[in-house]
Design brief:
The structure is a single chain. With 144 residues, this protein is an all-alpha fold. The protein has 6 helices and no strands. Helix 3 packs across helix 4. The two termini are 26 Å apart.
């Protein structure tokens, strides 16, 4: 039987995973529902101007990753992919982080604790066992 601490850790990780997933779901669905809004982000931060079809395709793939992440599937890959994608996003918006008191730049700081949370979830992915569709592999079967 799991200890009370183990249950609290599992619940905390599940809440963190689901809340973080909801955060990313908004952004991935925006690409599918309103590609013109996403295009503004791409032209400003990613120095590209993708077509609506490309944005929608990226949104569908990203949404699939987010839903798999929220379901606790393929933890090493989905948690790692979201961590890397978000790290790139935070890095590309770093100029806004350096100047948080101008315009809406302070809103970009919301991405920093999310990045830290993704890092923690990745490190603790084997302990994230509550409300998942597939249990984590045994540590001896999955390398860090």
């Amino acid at each position: 039987m799991r200890s009370d601490t183990d249950r609290r850790l599992a619940l905390s990780l599940a809440v963190a995973r689901l809340a973080t997933g909801a955060f990313f779901l908004v952004w991935s669905l925006e690409k599918v529902i309103a590609p013109e809004l996403a295009r503004g982000v791409y032209t400003t931060f990613y120095f590209s101007n993708p077509t609506d079809t490309m944005i929608i395709a990226m949104g569908i793939v990203q949404t699939a990753f987010v839903l798999a992440f929220m379901a606790g599937l393929f933890r090493r890959w989905t948690y790692g992919a979201l961590l890397l994608m978000h790290a790139a996003s935070v890095t590309l918006s770093s100029a806004r982080l350096i100047d948080p008191f101008t315009g809406p730049n302070q809103l970009f700081w919301a991405g920093v604790p999310v990045l830290a949370l993704l890092f923690a979830l990745y490190l603790l992915r084997d302990e994230d066992t509550m409300f998942v569709l597939r249990p984590a592999a045994k540590p001896s079967q999955e390398s860090p």
